[in-house]
Amino acid sequence: MRLSTLFFLLPLATAIPKLPRNQESSHAFFFKGHDLSSLKTLEDVGTIYRDTTRHNQTRPADDILGDGGMNTVRLRIWVYPEGGTNGLEYNLELAKRFKSKGFKIYLDFHFSDSWADPNKQPPPAAWPTTLAPLASTLRGYVKETLICFDRAGIDLAIVALGNEIRHGILWPVGHADVDVQPWPATIANFSNLATLYKAARAGVDDALHAVASRPQIMIHIDNGWNITLQQRWFGAMVANGIRTTDWDVFGFSFYPFYGTAATFDNLRTTLNTLAWEYKKPIQVVETDYPAICNGEYNPIPESSEPEIPYSIEGQTIWTRDVIGIVKQIPLGLGQGVHYWEPAWLNNSNLGSDCNDAILFSTDYSNYPQMVGYSRSSVNLFRV
Ligand SMILES: *[C@@H]1O[C@H](CO)[C@@H](O)[C@H](O)[C@H]1NC(C)=O
Ligand SMILES: *[C@@H]1O[C@H](CO)[C@@H](O)[C@H](O)[C@H]1NC(C)=O
Ligand SMILES: *[C@@H]1O[C@H](CO)[C@@H](O)[C@H](O)[C@H]1NC(C)=O
Ligand SMILES: *[C@@H]1O[C@H](CO)[C@@H](O)[C@H](O)[C@H]1NC(C)=O
């Protein structure tokens, strides 16, 4: 069956004229990514991965996940992290390795020395604390970082300016909240964030004069299922002079256990509405699903799609359903899906109340050496 499909497609494919590179990637390429930010930290302490489909052969996690359909690696970058973990050198090393294996690289700026998400956006300790100098430091940091990747031979496919920035970046200066009322107050509340975003975006333009390739610029917000949040957020940014050309692609997080409103229906409505309003590519850039959730440590949280079991099979069903929703976004604007940290053996709950949402079964019997055995869900991108 596969063969006949191929014979049918081949003459067609050769007849299609070659599109310019950026058009080709934005229309045809579908990003299937795994966030592997912690992999080096784990490998550095001797963690190994075994491929259960190859008689438990020891293989790099990225090779196993690559066989499972991954074509992109997402990496978070911190500014001056303790011990260098997730810092510039750490990321250059990982990015070089993944690029040499043919994976695309998606760089996720946190603009922080450690974690940044909707509940915390701590600015780098060494950065200024007032708006104008902070914006100027941010601009220079983005520029220099992108130039370093280029000098290392890494053409970044995607660059996200901030991680889950529903509540802004670089607190307190860049703290924003769509629930500030009435609307003129919302707009005023977003003014500092808009200034900082413009600075980060200008840093990209500064780098473009010096680098070989242009990444897609992403804005990444959590709760991709909440249309009210997304419309107000992007509306407030546009009202503050952010042009719709100032970002290329929407990135959304979508997890099953943060409120039962995180349904597939709500995700579909939100993504499709934004596609019609902004006519811009959309990706789901963080998701995961539990393989094990037995109430051992916390009460079992309800899934927003309760008919999908918490199981290895459920991980594949959930992710493929999300891929289906993204691929059905109108105007062909659905552009990718990324699974969050599938190989993080010693953090297998991935921040949830469940035991384990990663794609490897863990063996701690020789701790501190950790071993991860690939689950069938390592193949969830084989679609
Ligand atoms: C792979 O390792 C697992 C866990 O130790 C074991 O249960 C399984 O039998 C091994 N498979 C093979 C083919 O050796
Ligand atoms: C925006 O509103 C939030 C919530 O009230 C507040 O914490 C933040 O400081 C405000 N931001 C600015 C820049 O005024
Ligand atoms: C969706 O987001 C809006 C804006 O932040 C918020 O007011 C609302 O409570 C959210 N909806 C749900 C169901 O949480
Ligand atoms: C996982 O192991 C690494 C390396 O030993 C360590 O730095 C990190 O703190 C550990 N994380 C957790 C959540 O235990």
Automatic annotation (TrEMBL):
Enzyme class: hydrolase
Span of the signal peptide: 1-15
Pfam families named in the record: Glyco_hydro_53
Catalytic activity entry: The enzyme specifically hydrolyzes (1->4)-beta-D-galactosidic linkages in type I arabinogalactans
UniProtKB keywords: Glycosidase, Hydrolase, Signal
Stored InterPro entries: GH, Glyco_hydro_53
This protein's name: Arabinogalactan endo-beta-1,4-galactanase
Species this chain originates from: Lachnellula occidentalis
